[in-house]
Design goal:
By secondary structure, the protein is an alpha+beta fold. It has one domain: Beta-grasp domain (Ubiquitin-like (UB roll)), CATH 3.10.20. Helices cover 17% and strands 20% of the residues. It has 3 helices and 5 strands. Strands 2-1-5-3-4 form a 5-stranded mixed beta sheet. A hairpin with a 5-residue loop joins strand 1 and strand 2. The chain is globular, with a radius of gyration of 12 Å. The relative contact order is 0.29. It binds FE2/S2 (inorganic) cluster (FES). FE2/S2 (inorganic) cluster binds next to loops.
Length: 106
């Protein structure tokens, strides 16, 4: 089974089944991943789906567009590989992708 791995700041992880075509915020919420609220429903308007992509995976994702960059610029704990989970669409190529959930969201 293909999975996306969400890691918490506490060190715990949760593997969620990868459903192709879904965005990663929806997958996190469907699997009750702590710290991924997705308040705007995935319209890139709240920033409550902030995740930090594992460095080994960052270059394999399409870059953030201007709207996502604008939201990320307001993130509390922005890191070099920060992304919004709602803007990443799951594909089979992302099997095993590791995402860090920041301690604090917006
Ligand atoms: S769910 Fe609101 S920006 Fe991602």
């Amino acid at each position: 089974m293909a999975i996306i791995r969400f890691a918490q700041h506490t060190g715990t992880t949760r593997d969620v089944p990868l459903t192709e075509g879904s965005n990663l915020m929806d997958l996190a919420r469907a699997n009750a991943v702590p710290g991924i609220d997705g308040d705007c429903g995935g319209s890139c308007a709240c920033g409550t789906c902030h995740v930090i992509v594992d460095a080994a995976w960052a270059a394999r994702l399409a870059p953030a567009n201007a709207e996502e960059e604008r939201m990320l610029s307001m993130a509390v704990d922005r890191q070099p590989h920060s992304r919004l989970a709602c803007q990443i669409i799951a594909t089979a190529a992302l099997d095993g992708l590791r995402l860090q959930v920041p301690e604090h969201q917006f």
